[in-house]
Specification:
The protein has about 150 residues and is mainly alpha-helical. The protein is built from six helices and no strands. Mean pLDDT is about 85; it is low at about 1-10.
Length: about 150
């Protein structure tokens, strides 16, 4: 890629892109390294110059991650979002799989909440060696009631 002369560098620096998109600079570099974000042109001094395309792609990645999509899922969605590649059926398949994962995690969290709530309710709130919360965390912990 041919370097951009400083007089033509009308894009954003990595710091400006980071502030604009709320994505950490190291994360931006990582996305470039794993080829999720296209490598931007550079100035003669070697500084990256980001354009609207990179800004849009980075915002897409950030939003996908905020919604809990894996990097592989975001990569697939990015590919499907490319001009001429849009396939709502494929996007739906990825999103539905992700939704099922979220629902499974929610069910697990409900079970976990019930277990922890029951255990906390059994706590005597006294300074005694028998503690139900510690008992579920350390199954080999000697319990006063087991003597």
């Amino acid at each position: 890629m041919r370097p951009i002369t400083d007089s033509r560098a009308k894009g954003l620096s990595i710091g400006e892109l980071s502030r604009l998109t709320s994505v950490n600079i190291e994360t931006i570099r990582y996305y470039e390294k794993i080829k999720m974000l296209p490598r931007p042109p550079r100035t003669e001094g070697g500084h990256r110059v980001y354009r609207s395309k990179e800004t849009r792609v980075l915002a897409f990645i950030r939003r996908g991650r905020e919604l809990g999509f894996t990097l592989d899922e975001v990569r697939a969605l990015l590919n499907l979002a490319a001009p001429g590649k849009a396939s709502c059926a494929e996007v739906r398949k990825i999103a539905k799989h992700h939704l099922n994962d979220i629902r499974a995690k929610m069910n697990d969290l409900v079970k976990l909440e019930r277990l922890l709530a029951k255990t906390v309710a059994r706590c005597s709130d006294n300074a005694v060696p028998d503690c139900p919360v510690l008992d579920i965390l350390d199954v080999q912990r000697p319990r006063a009631s087991r003597k």
